[in-house]
Amino acid sequence: MPVELSNKYACLIPLCPLVASRLTGSLSFFFPKATKSLRRLCATFNTSSLIIAMFVSFAPFRQQAATHSIQQYLWARIPKSDFRLKIGFLIDPLTLAMSILATTAGISAMVYSDSYMCHDQGYARFYAYPSLFAASMLGLVFSPNLIQIYVFRELVGMCSYLLIGFWFARSSAANACQKAFVTNRVGDFGLLLGVSGVYWITGSSEIFELCDRFFELNSNGVINPILANTIAPPPSTGPVAKSAQFPLHVWLPDAMEGPTPISALIHAATMVAAGIFFTARIFNPISTLPPTMLIISWVGGVTTLPGATLALAQEDLKKGLAYSTMSQLGYMVPASGIGASRPASFHLITHAYSKALLFLGSGSVIHSMEKVVGYSPTRSQNMFFMGGLRKCMPITGTTFPSGTLSLCGIPPLSCFWSKDQIIAESRLRSPYLGLITSATAGLTASYTSRIYLLTFEGNFRANRVSYVGFDTSSPLEEIVTLWGGTRQESLTTQTSNDVTSKTDMELSGVAEARNLVNLCPSEENSVCGKAIQNHSKRNLLHPQESNLCMASPLIALAIPTAFAGLAGVDSTQKGTGLDLLFDWLISIPSFPEANKHLENLMEILTNSTPSLSLSFIGLSISLKAYGQTKKLADTKVYKKVKSINEDLLDTFASHIRDWSINRGYFDYYYNICFAGSVNLISKLVFYFDRWVIDGFINGTGASSPLGGEGIRQGRSGRISHYLLGLVIGVISPVSVVDLPIPPLP
């Protein structure tokens, strides 16, 4: 009875943030002035609602581990009709894991946002959006039927549109939210077609019922295999768009225009997680269709490797992490396609905590950099302006490496256990997919460690770059090259001293101030004087550690990033056939039994030697290239390689940089193929409407006065002329009538 009672209260999980969002939004709309004075109260109310949802999620979570049951509660929405729709909520291990993930990540983002967004005028409006975002995602994971899932997916897409375009006055943010919205509409249209097709075949939209009917019809040979494999792929277009898989991945880097806490929420627990969750939810029926499974696996395989290569030379900190998300989601999709649905779900959870930590850590860095270089994203998010931040931001610099090493797949951090299982399953099912996932593991270690090294290690570089006539490409070319080293034409000549003295920094600030004076007209000296003063102060500043409100979520997220994956070590099955997700659910409540899972640790590490070797190779390359650039130039190996293959390496590095900076040229070709074709068709329709449709109408209108004018000229006023016309009009029809020929006698 207590189990059923707590499960019935599970409807409060999505309801709490929904009520908070509606109240905050209504208050902001109807009483904007009062909302400004109550903005901290609105933030506390929305955060508390999500905390309540999290605690309500833990009650059925513990009972689920004890009973291993699957329950659903349904209410008939349209009872008296041929089309019966039952709404309700479903409780199973996947639902509870996703609800805890969404609530914990949402709470971290909201607590973090209190300091990150405190200066923004839309503070209260901002808090209404993440609450609605979390409510939509929680409603999606508790949905027992495809129609309810589709409705909540649309709400998730709407919230992403609102949050990506939160700073809609900025043209780049407005374009980014429209791009994300249109791209996801393509995927959702395919999902709608697939849901309609599944209902047409099975006659049901409830997940468990349609699975049973599909198995029954398929086993009896009622369903044509060609028809089934034609209807099954369209539902997967929804996850392809939501989870940023090729070819609908182009919206994800532009989505970084939104506030950084929202980027963490999108990449960890809501937007991109919705696609993987839907694939796991409908896994049972599509697992009986090998062609569909093959398509799904190769869509993910084609995505994961390009995603990793696109992140290799990104200058923008957030976009580098965005392409990392695209690549990691590419692990989960082929895992579902080869039948490893539970490892894919487990990797979704471990990756979510790691990526939430990295995004919130990057937000902490950006928030501190804005005080030094200004609020332009081309400066505050550019990794080549950073460096040496570990010394001045100790909490961020300590927690960020745990997320970095977790994505690299280094044991015992969480992503290692899930990623290694996916790589092992890929090698068993498909050698080519195994090769792709293994190579991606090495690339992942390379670009994630590159992000950390450029941001936190070395010396701070922002105060060495002139702000006058700044070009966004200059830091990449003048401060540090793609694979390390410096150029002689650098704005700041590298000397043997690693740290520029304070006197030199002051002199450089005065020189730049003089340059600014020469650029200012005499009548604007007062305005320019303030700008010069602020600019000189900026050159002497270094980023400072964020306050406790932003640092505490980083510390909290570092715990599951480090230890959540340990629950996936199963001591009974010797590392094979792991039910990773369910073991993770069971082992956490019984933490004293966790030591039993460590018995098989050495065997798992031995089996993961190939992928670990590639990860360490990627780490070593980044450490050599970006860790100590001067030591790299002095090493014998570097000199030997440089003397033999200098041109080859330069060409290779240049191609990788161009590929990464230009986003793989996908936007360029999409603009030509899709945007260009739409513009061409629009112009053709415009000219057809203007010259053919309007021409016919305008010609008809012009013929009326011309005909009237001709008739007016024919009216002479003489009766004889009118009589002649009357006679001609009467005789003419008679003359053309064919008279019948009488028959011959």
Automatic annotation (TrEMBL):
Domain (NADH-Ubiquinone oxidoreductase (complex I) chain 5 N-terminal) ranges: 80-127
Gene3D superfamilies in UniProt: 1.20.5.2700
Record's GO cellular component terms: chloroplast thylakoid membrane
Residue ranges of domain NADH:quinone oxidoreductase/Mrp antiporter transmembrane in the record: 143-443
Gene Ontology annotations of biological process type: ATP synthesis coupled electron transport; electron transport coupled proton transport
Subcellular location: Plastid, Chloroplast thylakoid membrane
Protein name according to UniProt: NAD(P)H-quinone oxidoreductase subunit 5, chloroplastic
Species of the source: Diplazium unilobum
Gene: ndhF
